[in-house]
Structures are given as structure tokens and as C-alpha cells.
Known about the structure:
Shape: globular
Strand content: 5-15%
Structural class: alpha+beta
Number of domains: 3
Number of strands: 10
Distance between the termini: 65 Å
Amino acid sequence: MNQIPVFEESFLQPMTSVINSDYWGTVMKTYEEKKFRESFYAVLDYIQEGLSSKALDEGKTRYSFPHGSIVVNLEIRDEHLYIDAPFLRIPAKYLLPLMRQVAELNFGTLVLAQIRLEENDIYFRYDAPLELCEPYKLYRVIEEICIQADSNDDAFIDKFVAQRFAEPHIERFSNEQIEMAWEKFQAYLQEALQYDDYYIQKRWESFGWDAYYLAFTRIDYFMRPQGVLKTELEKAVKDLNSSTPFNEKILRGRKAAEKLLKLEKEKFAESMYHSKQFISEKPTFDVAGLQNYLSKSHNTAKGEMEKRDHVGGFAHDAHRVVWADVLLHHPPNQPPNGNRCPPGSLGQGMEPRRPDPLGALRKNYGPKPERRQSLRHPRYLNPAKPKENGRYSKNYSLRGQDWHGFRLRKWVFLKTTGHCRNQ
């Protein structure tokens, strides 16, 4: 435990984005000139060069693109865009519990698209006039449908025996690759638990967060899992980056690691495959942008190394590197020049909400929460009351004539905030 985790290069081919980043200026210019149909075609060509030429009809009004286990259909009718993606067939026995999960997606995760029920089938749907299909919005709708459908289909099939409309376009790993991935999967999780125990003994509990985060992201980088395992990893990372108390996040990380260790090898093998993608999972970036992104954290890590805080220095650098390579979450689109980045490209502020590695020792708990104003606060007292040296008089009393005004203001305050009981 006195040595840092060893970096191991993935046995898979590097992922490359097919997004045509240089074309985004043309996309926005076309939309601003109110050429809405041409703007729609331009968004497709931005996603992948020449994609707008792959229409199903001569009028270029119907398109169909596979993404993982779904097929995204786009159609223009009467200058109105319709996006449709058949998702799953639901057995009548499990219709109610699965629709509860669908309701959570519709009211929580999904922003623009919605999941609709037709008989016992569910679809991702979105429609809008072409003039309202602003390029950023259109890209995000397509991305939302692809990512959410690909993230939830295997979980719904596993829990509710749902059925796909069509077989996914996938290529499974070889037996040798599955065996190698299984060994690393077990090793990374066990190593994270051992590091957490070691940090607890040293009273460096806050570094447990780093141990679990690095384990989950190393798994994603090394074997790039799909299906149920991918969903579980994304949930684990989301819990680590949530706003829950810090100790609770570490506890959730430990529970997630222990749960993943209990995963059967057959279930693990089901998540080992490549799938055909319509929307790129990883944003694009150039070498200069990546160097600029890594420089700030590297300078911080160098400073911690000089102070002989080797664990903190490693955590800073390792975090930055795995985040730049793995990118489980899409970054905010805010480039250095203040203009909006094209969707799917690398912007600033992409790092996760990583806590201070020495937070437990420095007692750096962040800003104190604001206190609720007391009813005796000057805001609720008589504004006409004179002040002494800029403050209300210490002898100021709520008795007598002003007491009735105070009671009235108190009643109004409680009534407006919903704390007043009907009497």
C-alpha cells in the first residue's frame, strides 16, 4: 500500500470521435440565416461528415441511424421534425413497475425528449417545428435519446424481462479478452478496498474517495464495458460526485465496489462488447487544449510533491488524466474565449467535483450555510425606529405600542412562508 496504483494501457483500440468540429460555424450560420431545413442537414453533417446524404428517400426527409440497441428515426413532414426511437416491448406482467421507472426518467433525467407508451411498447419521442430546432437543442435531443436508451435498456431487460425491437449492432469480445478484462476488473476493485482500509488506518479517510473513483474509471478505460455493468459504473461515479455528505459518498463507493465484486462472470461477459454508435460518447479535443487542461492540476500536484504530500500529488494528477481520457460525463460547453463550444467538444470546467484530498485533516468543510433570519431581525422590526451608531438600540423593546405591529409582521411572515397554522 506504499505504492501508487500502476497505470495499465487498455487492450482495446483507442476511441476516435467522428464529429466534424470545424463544421459547426456553418451549422450556426445556416440557422441564423433562417434556412431551417438546411440547418437540420448541417447538424447531421456535423455529427458525421456526409451523414445528410444517407437519406432513405430522394426528398431527404427520412433518416434512420442505429445506436447501440436502438434505431433513431428522423423524419420531416410539413416543415416539422419528428424524432422516434423504438425502445422496448414490455410484458403485461411487469408493465406497472417498469412504467414507474419510465416516469422517473421522464420527470427527472430527460429534458426535451420523452418516453411514450403505445399498447405494451415504449418509444423515445420528440417533435418540433424546424424553425424551433436550434442546432444546440437539436444535437442535445438526439444525444439525450441515444445515451439514455443505451444506458437503460439492459437494466430494464434484466429487471423486467423486457424485449428489444431488434437485435443490437454489437461485436462481442473474444474469450481471451473477456478473461483478461475479468482479471483486471477483480484486481482494480480489490485494490480500491485495500487502499481504503489502509487510508482509514492512517487516518487519511478522505483519500478513500480517490481510491474508489480511480478504480471505477480505470475499469471504464481498460475494458470499456457496456450494458448493465456500464450503468452500474456510471451510477457509482455519479454517487461519488453527488452533493451528499463526504463520508456518505465514500461509504457509497465502498458499497458499489463490494456489489460489483459479487457480479458473476457470466453476467460480466454479457457487458463485454462493442456497439455501433450514432452519437460519439467522447468529446473531441486537440493537443493544445488537453495540455492547457492538464497544466493547472499538474502545477498543483508539483506543489504538493514539494511538500512531500505524495498521495495528494498523485491524486491530483491521476484524477486529471483519467478524467481527460475516460470522460464519463460530458463537460460544460464553455471555451476560453467565452463563446459556446460546439456540442460534443471539449470545454473548460470539465473536471468532477473532487473534494480536497486533505479535507479531513484541514477541516475544510466549505462555506458555512446561511442562517435563517430571526423574527427579531431588524428586517421585521419597526423601520422607523432610530438607530444608535448604525445599530438598533440595545434598549429597544417589543412591548407596548410596537408589540401589535410585531405580531402582525410575524403573522404575515409565517403566513407567506407556509408555517402559519389555521386557527
